[in-house]
Design brief:
By secondary structure, the chain is an alpha+beta fold. The chain contains 3 helices and 4 strands. The chain has a single domain, classed as Alpha-Beta Plaits (2-Layer Sandwich). The protein has a 4-stranded antiparallel sheet. Helix 1 packs antiparallel against helix 2. The longest helix has 15 residues. It is globular and about 35 Å long.
Amino acid sequence: MKTLVIYDITDDNLRNAVNEVCKNFGLSRIQKSAFLGDLVSSARKELKAKLQKTLGDAEGNIQIFVLCNACIALREIIGKYTVPPELGTVIV
């Protein structure tokens, strides 16, 4: 299923570390603080554990959403957006 990770982290080094974790799981950046991609349940659990370890007790938050294909199809985009090739076809 599609997995959306969004975060609000002010520390540059920590934010970069979160970015790398998301990229290492094959997620694609869709906004400055948002990544999206397909993950099976076990990979999502591993992602959550790595993100928890990365954030630790630092200030900020990370949110993980599981989205079905029907929910993705209902997404509305305002402005210019290029779909990363690894996300496949997105119908809006």
